[in-house]
Amino acid sequence: MRGFFCAPPAARLLTRESKLFYQNCHPGVERIAQALEGMRELRNGPPRGHLRISSTPGFGRKIVAPLLRGFRTRYPDIAFELLLNDRPADFISDRVDVGFHDGRMEDSEAAEKQLIPMPMIVCASPLYERRHNLPRQVEELVQHRCVDFRSASGRVSDCEVKVDGLIQKHSTARASLNCRPIRSAIYCGKSV
Question: Does residue 1 carry a pLDDT above 50?
Answer without folding.
Answer: no
